[in-house]
Amino acid sequence: MLGRRPIFRNSYTPPYGFELDEIQQIKNLAKGNIVDGWLKCLELGLHRVSKTPKSNYIPNIKQAVERLIEEYVQEPRVLRNKIAHGQWRIALNRDNDKTNNDLTNQIKNIDVVQLNIWKEAHQGLSNIIEVLIESPDRAFHRDYWLEIVKVNEQLNKTKTWKLEDKMHLLKKKQSLHKTYNKANSRAQRSPSRWESP
């Protein structure tokens, strides 16, 4: 529903990706909890990095990526599960015998902007994991920090997004499109000054 599983699947199946047994480990964990699947991807990928410039290099990478996983996979996971199980208006507690007001309010506040933010985060995580597993001792060292910075900059930018602002931009774009179409249709109807009448 929230677009996380297809991106997650892409993160561990590139041409120079995980071995079949590693993929099975990831799938087994992801069945029970998608967060555990992402963390397993990270763990297996970091085991491939053999050349490290500093002793705190791997722990720092792990911490930065785990932070992204916690914020953009762990937190929305519960909402996604409620929606996937038909609780798209009123979320119930674990026993399904009372309303969970906190989750109900969170579900009511989900909009296309929030979904887009989650999508951006998952794409960024996918890019980081892909660089890690495809080239752990070359491209990863070169591109990892750029990917982290890119993801964090994009996510920081999206924190200011509001549905009203996006709707205003769409209306403005639609208005410009209508103006362009009117001008274009007038130009097609009137003969060019180069054409003979």
Task: Describe the structure using short key phrases.
extended; 197 residues; disordered N terminus; mainly alpha
Word description of this protein:
With 197 residues, this protein is an all-alpha fold. The protein folds into two domains: 157 residues, no CATH class; 31 residues. The chain is extended and about 65 Å long.
Assign an overall shape: extended
Task: Give the amount of beta strand, in percent.
Answer: under 5%
Order of helices and strands: HHHHHHHH
Task: Please count the helical segments.
Answer: 8
Q: Give start-end ranges of low-pLDDT stretches.
A: 1-7
> Termini separation (Å)?
59 Å
Indicate the structural class: mainly alpha
The gyration radius over C-alpha positions equals: 23 Å
Question: What's the main sheet like?
Answer: none
Number of separate strands? 0
Number of domains: 2
What level of helicity do the residues show? over 70%
Overall pLDDT metric:
80
Concise overview:
This protein folds into 2 domains: 4-160, no CATH class; 161-191. Helix content is 72%, strand content 0%.
How would the blueprint of this fold be written?
Blueprint: H1 4-11, H2 20-32, H3 34-47, H4 57-84, H5 101-108, H6 112-134, H7 139-158, H8 163-189
